[in-house]
Amino acid sequence: MLTQIKLSAGFNEEEARKLVAKPLFEKPEVEAAVREIVENVKRSGDKALFEYTEKFDKIKLTPETMMVTPEEFDAAYSLIDSELLGSIKEAIRRITVFHAKQKENSWFTTEGGMLLGQLVRPVERAGIYVPGGRAAYPSSVLMNAIPAKVAGVSEIAMVVPGATRAEVLVAAAEVGVTEVYKIGGAQAIAALAFGTGSVPKVDVISGPGNIYVTLAKKMVVGYVDIDMLAGPSEVVVIADSKAKPTYIAADMLAQAEHDPDATAILITNSEDIAKETAVAVDLQLSRLERKEIAEQSIKENGRIFLVASIADAIRLANIIAPEHLELMIESPLESLGLVKNAGAIFLGTYAPEAIGDYVAGTNHILPTGGTARFYSPLGVYTFLKRSSVLSFSRQSFGDAAESAINIAESEGLTGHAKSVRFRMEE
User: CA 291, CA 280: separation in Å to the nearest integer?
Assistant: First the structure.
């Protein structure tokens, strides 16, 4: 079922790029529908928000019923077992420890009567989107909210379609989400960006969703900031002859079960590994609970690339710029320096993507569709903003003034030059 492609040594990168290209969000009819939703919510607020929620999610909401109540949070705790709650708490601990290392400090420097610096502050209000379609994602609550909390964001508004899953509400309560709204889709993104009568607007929106959610995020950039534009999930496994095909197959299927549009790719320099992994995928697929989803993903997007060397494998991975990159090779740390583009990099046999998805501490909200060339994982920095700070004494001003005047006049901005020259003539 897996499509196998053989690339010769020193393969042409442009040709390889054509084999792995996945155009992002090139669906004009969907974009037009999303634009209408966004504009209607921007214009009509709650009225449009409630109409779209009833139309798409089959939920009738009012300003009084759209927010999750304390009683609903209490009920959620009664519906999950202590073992799951303990696991959620452990994940929170690990994710918090990792993200605490991303905190940035303001800094200042003084020299010759001049003070320069950078003031780092969190945004005041963040909006986090948690999908509620094919499955419940308490892990996505943690990955969104914990970096915001570590950054110092005082208000975190969460939107999730329906907001009925107990584990999702418990995760939100455990990390201190301040409000949860029972809305989703493009209409929820627009509500967060522009505000409605019932939903105050936010400064940053984070979190993955379907193409409607992603296109809505794209359209509200400038009114708010966003984390990234994320498409279907993907994994690339690079494996040598010592790797275990059963592990490779399991990791590929773990990705494929997300969504029919998910991508799972193996790149190897071993013909035996390629053949044995293909067999293992078929065998494990037949026993998978989410078989139909994974089977479609593997059939349409699964690939095995046979290359001449591990160096070529990493070169191909850099072209793909995957969301998840597993280096299931001997001495993976030695090859880490060759990796240029990847959202998250998993080294060795015992670092499957699934560990990173839940409890390693790293963030699982990652750039997809080749955008790891310029996007980073969601992190504390997503919720921070920076202000430059400067102060000059009379003398230090004089030292810089002539250069400022010369550059301003070269640009034809004589008013700028005069602003400086007036102070020099005092």
Answer: 14
